[in-house]
Design goal:
The chain is built from 13 helices and 27 strands. The chain has 657 residues and is an alpha+beta fold. The protein folds into three domains: 79 residues, 2-Layer Sandwich (Alpha-Beta Plaits); 342 residues, 3-Layer(aba) Sandwich (Rossmann fold), CATH 3.40.50; 156 residues, Sandwich (Jelly Rolls). Helix 9 runs parallel beside helix 10 and helix 11 runs parallel beside helix 13. It is globular. The chain starts with 5 loop residues before the first helix and ends with a strand.
Length: 657
């Protein structure tokens, strides 16, 4: 084995001083060769509704109801204690009933509990009103910091490096379930594919009719007179939000067109699916739209000729996920869609909001420019990942800039404007998911979630976010698409969302304080990875104790540590601390990975730009292996030039991300 001379080591150390002041040298070798503006408006608590969703246990009974026989409606009305009228059939073999007038949510809940008690009823639920999870505030700013590479003070989603790899595919579409889109905006012209307006109620739709093939946004303003009484009594007085247009611009505004802003996906088309109008929208319309967007049939609506692989829902309402919504999401995911939803803007646990608390979705919390939890963002175990959502008041450059309109009621001038909200964070994730599917369209929703969570930007030190409340980390587009390229030849780790159980995970000597006990280790250059840090002056200080694992630091190195572990259903999240230092100018030359039974479940990109230069905690969801004994391996492979170092310590299992 050839070792570099001391003179070489000193020269390189001087060259690197400006960029890596605490650069550990490879063991017994040379020094490395280089090293808004928008208010948070939560959905009204207990918003009144005049509709009920009901599903029957037997199709024959449902068919009888659909015929609206007097006997059926009389029996249901008698059980409910109020007159019920049949309104329409909906997807998922459920039906919508109407009350004579809108009632407070608590009263409707009491009515559906009576209906649900009937033996022929599978479930009955209030047809909840859902609302956009952001509203406009102040004039535009041209700074799209939220796309930038993450650095201190600007924790963006790292889009530029992702665009070097992929900008989209014509075979992928992204559905935006929202207020509709102004497709004539200069940055959205040519970026949409035919969609649909799913709003049944003409008053809510505000376009003079019910469902139709025109998903353009006519405006969703509420006047003081409307809020004072009548159908919109109690609704928030507001100008039109053009919410769906803002969301769509983040996902896919035309880019490199010398106009306005950039979108995340430059190629794939956006499908406007209108579900929100004046004072929000009914859940029964939204669940029909979920199925339709995924390519499933909905009674009375033409089939979707261009099904979407990604469904963005920057909307929500009070109350945990109900059966109607969960069934629709399950159907969409089984059809191949990835559903991305906002955590909500109430600074509360997302478990109390829908669809944020549903399973089989990617629930997105919002971070501010500094990588903190945005003050308004919901949080908790329901959250999978965080993304830039913005913050700030009047004239703040710290919100999310996108396409908009300045009409206070109907559309007027097309403009650009900044908003804050989990509504703004969510399309960042949806856009990145569409880039991932553009690389590999065979990915399932579970695989997408696993890859996203395994390739995040860690929350910065001192952040008000952590992996217990804001998901696995901050969205990192470049890491996600790069990992997809790196792992394309491997079998992907299945993902089981929010599992729970009672069995316990086991690992032997995860902190290495008993040396190599319990571990098998290997180095192609003959340097055992597990070592007493004080025995090598070039090592970093362990995260805890006296021992650690040092992988790499050598040319043409293939090294690993591994042991058999049991993944318990009660503690399915592997965690470990890593400290990375590298002289590589780009990614893909030196790569570390965590493997289960030989399959890669997480990659650590080793380059100067991605180096942590400090101990960072990482987590990996191993729920798919719950109850199994598997081989856990930390593996590295380096090339013939420039050094990369991967230190690992304090490995264990925990119950949550």
């Amino acid at each position: 084995m050839t070792k570099r001379s001391l003179s070489t080591r000193i020269f390189l150390a001087v060259c690197l001083l400006a960029s890596a002041l605490s650069w550990p040298t490879p063991r017994a070798q040379a020094q490395g060769d280089g090293p808004t503006r928008e208010k948070s408006v939560p959905a009204p608590t207990g918003a009144p509704t005049n509709q009920i969703i009901i599903k029957f246990k037997a199709s024959a009974e449902a068919a009888g109801l659909e015929a609206a026989s007097a006997s059926n409606m009389s029996a249901l009305s008698q059980a409910a204690g109020v007159t019920l009228n049949y309104f329409r059939a909906m997807s998922g073999e459920a039906h919508v009933l109407q009350l004579p007038q809108a009632l407070p949510y608590a009263e409707v809940q009491a009515i559906v509990e009576k209906l649900a008690a009937r033996p022929e009823v599978e479930y009955a639920e209030p047809d909840r009103r859902m609302f956009p999870l952001a509203t406009p505030n102040d004039p535009e700013y041209s700074d799209q910091w939220h796309y930038f590479a993450p650095v201190a003070g600007t924790y963006g989603a790292n889009l530029p490096a992702a665009w070097d790899i992929i900008t989209g595919s014509t075979n992928i579409r992204i559905a935006v379930l929202d207020t509709g889109i102004l497709s004539g905006h200069p940055d959205l012209v040519g970026r949409t594919v035919s969609g649909y307006d799913f709003i049944n109620d003409a008053q809510v739709g505000n376009d003079g009719n019910g469902r139709d093939s025109d998903p353009e946004d006519p405006g969703d303003w509420i006047t003081a007179g409307e809020a004072a009484g009548g159908f919109f009594a109690g609704c928030t007085v507001t100008d039109s939000s053009w919410h769906g247009t803002h969301v769509a611009g983040t996902i896919g505004a035309a880019t490199n067109n010398s106009e306005g802003v950039a979108g995340i996906n430059w190629v794939s088309q956006i499908q406007a699916v209108r579900v929100l109008g004046k004072c929000g929208g009914f859940n029964s319309d939204i669940v029909d739209a979920i199925r339709w967007a995924a390519g499933l049939s909905v009674s009375g609506v033409p089939n979707n000729a261009n099904p979407s692989r990604v469904i963005n829902m920057s909307l929500g309402g009070i109350g945990s996920c109900d059966s109607t919504t969960q069934n629709a999401i399950n159907d969409a995911v089984n059809a191949g869609a990835v559903v991305v939803v906002a955590a909500g803007n109430s600074n509360a646990d997302a478990s109390g909001f829908s669809p944020a608390s549903c399973a089989n979705v990617i629930t997105v919390a919002a971070t501010d420019r500094n990588g903190n939890k945005a003050s308004y963002s919901n949080f908790g175990a329901s959250v999978e990942i965080a993304a830039p959502g913005g913050s700030g008041g009047t004239n703040s450059p710290n919100a999310v800039l996108s396409t908009l309109n300045d009409g206070t009621q109907g559309p007027a001038n097309h403009i650009y404007k900044t908003y804050n909200g989990t509504s703004m964070a969510t399309p960042h994730v949806a856009g990145v998911v569409s880039l991932m599917l553009s690389i590999n369209p065979s990915l399932t929703s579970a695989q997408v979630i696993s890859l996203l969570q395994a390739n995040v930007t860690a929350f910065p030190g001192g952040s008000t976010c952590n992996t217990s409340i804001c998901g696995a980390g901050i969205l990192n587009a470049a890491a996600a698409v790069q990992a997809l390229l790196t792992l394309n030849q491997f079998v992907y780790l299945p993902y089981v969302a929010r599992s729970s159980g009672t069995t316990t995970s086991t690992i032997t000597n995860g902190d290495f304080e008993s040396g190599a006990t319990g571990w098998t280790q290997s180095s192609s250059n003959g340097y055992p990875p597990i070592l007493l840090a004080s025995s090598d002056p070039n090592s970093v200080t362990p995260y805890s104790g006296l021992w650690l694992t040092w992988l790499g630091g050598l040319h043409n190195e293939t090294g690993y540590i591994q042991q058999s572990v049991t993944v318990g259903s009660g503690q399915p999240y592997l965690y470990f601390y890593e400290y990375t230092i590298s002289a590589e100018p780009g990614t893909g030359f030196d790569v570390g990975s965590v493997r289960i039974n030989g399959s890669v479940v997480r990659t650590t990109s080793l380059s100067a730009s991605t180096a942590t230069n400090a101990w960072i905690k990482r987590t990996v969801n191993l729920s798919a292996y719950a109850g199994q004994t598997v081989t856990l391996q930390f593996y590295i492979q380096t090339d013939s030039s420039l050094y990369s170092n991967w230190f690992v310590d304090a490995i264990g299992f925990q119950a949550t991300p």
